[in-house]
Amino acid sequence: MDINSVKTQISADLALVNSSAQLEEFKLKHFSRKGTLSQLTAVIPTLAPAERAKFGQEVNAFKNSITALIAEKERVLQAGVQSGPAVDYDIGMPGIVQELGRLHPITQTINEISAIFTRMGFCVVEGPEIETEFNNFTGLNIPLEHPSRDAFDTFYLKDYEKLLLRSHTSPVQVRAMKSRKPPLAIVVPGRVYRPDAVDASHLFMFHQIEGFMVDTSITFADLKGSLEMFAKAVFGNDIKMRFRPHFFPFTEPSAEVDISCIICKGVGCSVCGRKGWLEILGCGMIHPNVFKQVGINARIYSGFAFGMGIERIAMLKYGINDIRLFFENDLRFLKQF
Amino acid sequence: MKVTYNWLKDFVDIKIPPDDLAERLTMAGLEVVTLEKKGSDFVFEIEITSNRPDWLSVMGIAREVAAITKSKVKSQKSKVQFKIQKSKQEKFEIKIENKKDCPLYTAKIIRGVQVGPSPEWLRTRLESIGCRSVNNIVDITNYVLFETGEPLHAFDLDKLSGFAIIVRRAKPGEKMVTIDGAEKQLSSDILVIADERKPVACAGIMGGKDTEVTGDTKNVLLEAAVFDPVLIRRAKQKLGLQSESAYRFERSVDASMVERASEIAAELIEKLSPGKTVLIKRAGACKSLKKNIILDLSRVTKILGVKIPAPRIKSILLSLGFMVKAKAQSKFSVWPPSHRQDVALDVDLIEEVARIYGYERIPPTLPSVKPQLAARDTLDTVSLIKNILTGLGLNEAITYSMTERSLDAGLGSLEKLRAVEIRNPVSCEQEILRTSLMPSLVRCAALNLNQKQDYVNLFEIARKFYLSDNGPREELCLGIVLCGSKSLALEQSMVKDEVGLFHLKGALENMFLRLGIKDAVFSSEPGGVRIDLGGKKAGYMLRLSPGARDKFDIKNREVFVAEVSLEKVIPALNLKKKFSAPPKYPGITRDISLLLEDSVRIEEVFKAMRSAGGDLLKDLKVADFYKGTQIPAGWRGLTLSCFYRSDERTLVEAEVAPAHAKVGLVLTERFGARIR
Predict the structure, then answer these.
(1) B347 vs A285: CB contact, 8 Å cut-off?
(2) Which of B302, B371, B390 sits opposite A100 (nearest CB)?
(3) Which chain B residues contact residue A184 at CB under 8 A?
């Protein structure tokens, strides 16, 4: 086989290739295991040793040049597929779409918080908004005639002495602990009601999320760890956190949790009242009197509970300065989330 | 509660600067909300939780400062001993009607006082904590109240009738003008301090105008007492009065400090005004119930999750004034001091230990959770529905559960429910709990239209409330409101799409489909469209009447609303999915263009066409419709698309033609359609 005639043949064939199919055929004819080039190299062992190297180099050089030509051919053929009559798009014109609706920022915040806790193994439960006085107060160790009740101003129903609109989500603790057996790990989002005068940070209706965990060895240290994980997930890993002793009738020991101000990073600004800290939630170890009311043995079981205002979290997260915006439902507001 | 740095220093050595002290107090549970420099002193404003009345005094906070700074409270032995000149003429009685209402009442008679302005130091201290200076006698009672936490009251002795103080319930019809000048109607659930003729003070809340200390007062009766907290709380709520005294009594005061506080005040009066204590009277007793609490040290670890050494636990409790005795192996017997009535259980002690040890020193750990897999519930369904609806372009709203009675009724809802009323609304917006989501959603639509939004599409999933035969009930509902027009972009142009009832229907149909609900039926009723699921009424949709729109000030815009009970949707839910193979053989589509009278219902037409088309007719669709000038009035133009297919073979024209002819025949013969 003469190398020069092979060269001529291959070059001529390539020039005739005009489609991808022809290119495949061409490759098969010349470059496959039984193709022309293989036949050419097959003669190498029969050559005199002195000629072998020279011949081999010549074949390789040709192979490289033809490979480049094939690549060029492929590019040209590809371009041919893509071109066609040219369209001059004014691509700045709007895309055509069915616009998606948005979930309310409160729902988004509840979803985000619930998701963090469900990933930790909690399950989400709801309770009624019309509650009994017992579940809202007495069952939670809040005496009916004590100043500790002042924090829970409450709407009562007309004609129903002992029924009210729950002033916090904690009554669901009483319900859940009565109807289920430990171990418990539950979060409860929902609406709550308090007859507060309306201003930029107070409303007569808002949302809370409550969480609690009950088992044989739940500690205050666990409460700290769980809430730290939560706060970092919501506000970022670089926030600082502090647990301040506080008082809630349904937990002992109790704490309020502050995070370093997310606006000024703890230096002090108008959002945090120059304190550098933002209060985000209340928590503590479930009070033995609450366990007693629901029939859980406080000698065996212990548990933590926490609660927070959703609006407050959402306002901090999104930088919203007036709580009333949440309930006006101005589409220009809703569509920002 | 306000307290100053220097005032605290009267009772405890403080070696740290004010801002450090503020930080330490905050981290011990006395949240310092503001710290302000005033002259040479610093004023701390501290938020005191309702369980700690003992912190409502300088001495109480000083005790805490001593504990957290490992310092000691300075001893406060009385420097002056009362030398009472026994006088035969002094006779005075205290009568307590009911010891439960008033366990202890003490009175001192101080004669020869000169009422005048207070000395500079006293005025400055009171004013620095926001208490207005009145005169030396009143200022002293206030000063002692803030210092010791024990409320005191000074009567002008000469204005009291007779020689007795009677602590009793008010009689029906009795009235009294309090120091603030208001006349108060009294009743038998209000405890009063009375002379032999009439009430002279609302016990523990406020004194009477008639017997108050004035510039002419020469002799005073100084009261220091203990009253029943609940009684005081009820009375102050009933009378609408708030005072520093009531604030402390309703939280309960330290009975063991009552006489001491009275002595401090009497001493000051003797010092600052040339008065002399001539008589000390007391009725009732300060009963101190010494009950001990067993603190098992293993419980401290079990609750806190950190092991605090026993000696540290003991030293913390001692520093807070508790008495501690080792009881058994790793058990303490602990007696709370008299000012700590809030401490009743071991967890209360554990909190004290944790507070002083420092919450920040308890290392965070993660609990081991035993996972519970909850069954799919309402919340998951609600979440799914919300996702479907937002996918359909609707925006979620959240509106108030309460509303005005006048807005709740008469929106044309197909059912009338009895509303649950609120006993104590703050404004008329909270008169009742809404019986439908519609009014609040329409209100949102009105707001958005006012803001020049031309397309409003909102939904809400929330509860409505009503009175059932078994009392108040809540029911989870979906509400949708649509109004205005949206711009639809097509490939070649934009068109304005005026929304209507069929947009609502489309959204609901889509939602039902996605929820696996196949038996939703929409049927026209007077006033709107009824929606049935599984043969039961589940909701309605309607176009607001002009009258209803007027209520919301919506002009020149049609508003469409729907409400569906999720309590009916959830049982109908079918999220199980079953595979069926895509058809093997292609089908043939035949369109029929026709004119149909408006009165002919499309559902009837489809039903008849289906039965005429037989098995081969697999699908029927409205491919186009038109109403307008080219068509006679009372008629509409329709193009119906019939899809024929066989599961066994590829259909040929010869098979489709007879079936399609039958379908056409039904249209003309049964429905009077004109084929075009």
Answers:
(1) yes
(2) B390
(3) 372
Convert B596-635 to b/e letters by CB count within 10 Å (16 or more is b): beeebeeeebeebbbebbeebbeebeeeeeeeeeeeeeeb
Considering the domain delimited by B378-572, tell me its CATH architecture: 2-Layer Sandwich (3.30)
Residues of chain B with pLDDT > 70: what percent?
96
Torsion of CA B511, B558, B477, B510, to 10 degrees: 0
Across the interface, which of A145, A193, A329 has its CB nearest the CB of B230?
Answer: A145
d(CA A53, CA A58): 9
Q: How confident is the model at residue A81 (pLDDT cuts 50, 70, 90)?
A: low
Distance from CA of B64 to the nearest CA of A (A): 13
Per-residue pLDDT for B78 more than 60?
A: no
E-assigned strands of B330-422? 331-335, 395-396, 402-403, 420-421
Nearest CA in chain B to A180: B372
Question: Thinking of the domain B588-675, which architecture would CATH place it in?
Answer: 2-Layer Sandwich (3.30)
B113: pLDDT confidence band, cut at 50, 70 and 90?
Answer: very high
Average pLDDT over residues B551-575: 93
A98 to chain B, any CB pair closer than 8 A? The answer is yes
In one-letter notation, the amino acid at residue A110 is I
Query: Rounded to an integer, what distance in angstroms lies between the CA atom of residue B346 and that of residue B352?
Result: 10
Decide if domain A105-334 falls under CATH 3.30.930.10: yes
Answer whether B422 sits within 8 Å of A155, measured CB to CB: yes
Q: Looking at residue B371, what is its pLDDT? A: 67
Kindly report, residue by residue over A136-187, the tens digit of the pLDDT.
999 999 988 887 777 778 999 999 989 999 999 999 999 999 999 999 999 9
Question: Could you give the CA distance from residue B174 to residue B172 in angstroms, rounded to a whole number?
Answer: 6
In chain A, where the domains are located: 3-82, 105-334
CATH number of B2-68: 3.30.56.10
Does the domain made of B93-284 have the CATH classification 3.50.40.10? yes
Q: B534: which 2 tokens?
A: 């599984």
